[in-house]
Amino acid sequence: MYLRYGIPRALRGLRTNWRSTANNVLILAASLAMLGMIVLLYLNVVHFSESWLSNTTISLFLKPGLDDGQRQALLDQVRRHPLVKRATLVSPSKGLKDLADKLGADPSLLAAAGQEGLPYTIDFDLFVDYRSKVGSVAERFRALPGVQDVVYTERLLDQVRLFFLMVKIIGGFFIGLILISFYLIVSHATKLSLYARREEIEILSLVGATRHFIRSAFIVEGMLVALCGGVLATGIVWISHQLLISGLSFNAVTASIKQQAVFFPLDGLAAALCAAALLGAVSSSIAVTRLLRDFQS
Amino acid sequence: MGQPASRENVATKISLEGLTKSYLGMLPVLDDVSCQIDEGEFYYLTGVSGAGKTTVFRLLMLIERPDTGTIRFDGEDITRLTIAEQARHRRRIGMVFQDYKLLASDSIEENVALPLRVAGYRGARLRAKTEQQLEQVGLVQRRRERVAGLSGGEKQLVSIARALAFDPKVFFADEPTGNLDHTMAYRVLELIRDLHRQGCTVIVATHDLGLIRAFRARTLLIKDRKLHEVRLAEHRASG
């Protein structure tokens, strides 16, 4: 019964007070877009760090001038190590192709850099249970004759780990802060809207409407405004994301970021919109209940 | 005005017992007021501006709570009702206000139908009942018009039509003719008198002595924070 009255009444209220509705939607959209951008940045940092941490491949860069027999002997030595799951010898041309695939760049451009620029490498992975030993195994192979350098994720991560940690902490802090301000904005916007329609609430109360009945229209209104704000914010964040990503092709590092960058998953987005609508409903409910209490006190 | 029934046989509809009401710790507007409203009677409630006429209605409608004292409707102490029971209490009373209390952006029909919607009326039942109420005040043909475009008198007619939603046995009107010209004021009062003729207990707050003279009835005067039943001559003497 409440919704049969509440939904049409809310739609009419939104239409009649369209300026105030538009203001509230825009304020919410701006607030939610900020929240969305920070959450998206946070998600991407977490995604990058997890993606990097889960990569246990170790690359042995071989010295130039080794013949096929020496390279094969080194490969066999690596394969015999009890913690090594699999190992492959990568030629400069294969390395170039893999790099091109990874970066999404034009292979002809990379070829122009010359195959001579890349050394032979032996790429190998450890069994899952021994991931924690990546550092010690890699350093052990560094000492082998014929190995020029060793590159592995752990080593790279050491350099960016602190950065990731800081982004996570600061991101978490800002998400909390913006969530609080979102609640305050919704609550304040609802209160303003309710005070503007104080007489309507008074009339409903005078003709014998229960609190649930009066609240129904305002709760639906709060939900719809928050939902519209959420949808608009999603659009803003998506467009910003696309613009940023399309501008990330200027070098190999940014091209790698571009390939791995993620947007919100659809189910997460749906859950976030539902949460925004729920928060809108709760804020409206609290504001209208307080107003009714004032009126009926 | 129809003749009131013999007072010996009349039941008490509303009784105020030791009622005191003050606002924000100021001097009380009503101080230890006691009074009985007989069933089926027509009363004027009068007094100077600010005497407490509206406060009496706000207490009877449970918009305000008394500081002390009780209010009984058909013997039931309504000051102890829960929030949900208060809503039900308001539905059994028809009330009109000097400022109409209408939803200006809604149509006449929607305003009149509002209490019925609140009570769960839907579809054909809602339409039939709304039409019946609009007929009583002669606004059926104008049902689709927005309230915002109506004159004060027409708004008061809409307000009366809305108050008839549940065929009330008690009807309150707070300065219903305050903003109206004489012709419209008399039309509005005539409608209220019709309700009284149908057995409704009516209280009309007014300070329009002309109206009281034209349609004589029992008169309650609020003076010095007390409520007194007076005869018209006494009222005139009291200023």
Provide an overview of this structure.
The complex is a heterodimer of chains A (297) and B (239). Chain A has 297 residues and is α+β, with helices and mostly antiparallel strands. Chain A is 74% helix and 8% strand. Chain A contains eleven helices and four strands. Chain A has helices spanning 2-16, 18-53, 68-80, 92-103, 107-113, 134-142, 153-196, 198-206, 211-246, 252-260, 266-296, and strands at residues 58-62, 84-90, 121-126, 147-152. The longest helix of chain A is centred in the middle third of the chain and has 44 residues, at 153-196. Chain A is rod-shaped and about 95 Å long. The relative contact order of chain A is 0.17. Chain B has 239 residues and is α/β, with parallel strands linked by helices. Chain B contains eight helices and ten strands. Chain B has helices spanning 53-60, 83-91, 108-118, 123-137, 152-163, 182-197, 209-214, 232-237, and strands spanning 12-21, 30-38, 42-46, 68-73, 76-77, 93-96, 170-174, 201-205, 218-223, 226-230. A six-stranded mixed β-sheet of chain B has the order 6-7-8-3-9-10, sandwiched between helices. In chain B, β4 (68-73) and β5 (76-77) form a beta hairpin. In chain B, α4 (123-137) packs across α5 and α5 packs parallel to α6. In chain B, 41% of the residues are buried. The interface between A and B is medium-sized, with 20 and 26 residues.
Write a brief caption for the model.
The complex is a heterodimer of chains A (297) and B (239). Chain A is of the alpha+beta class.
Topology:
The complex is a heterodimer of chains A (297) and B (239).
Chain A: H1 2-16, H2 18-53, E1 58-62, H3 68-80, E2 84-90, H4 92-103, H5 107-113, E3 121-126, H6 134-142, E4 147-152, H7 153-196, H8 198-206, H9 211-246, H10 252-260, H11 266-296
Antiparallel strand pairs in A: 1-3, 1-4, 2-3
Chain B: E1 12-21, E2 30-38, E3 42-46, H1 53-60, E4 68-73, E5 76-77, H2 83-91, E6 93-96, H3 108-118, H4 123-137, H5 152-163, E7 170-174, H6 182-197, E8 201-205, H7 209-214, E9 218-223, E10 226-230, H8 232-237
Parallel strand pairs in B: 3-8, 3-9, 6-7, 7-8
Antiparallel strand pairs in B: 1-2, 1-4, 4-5, 9-10
Helix pairs in contact in B: 3-4, 3-5, 4-5, 5-6
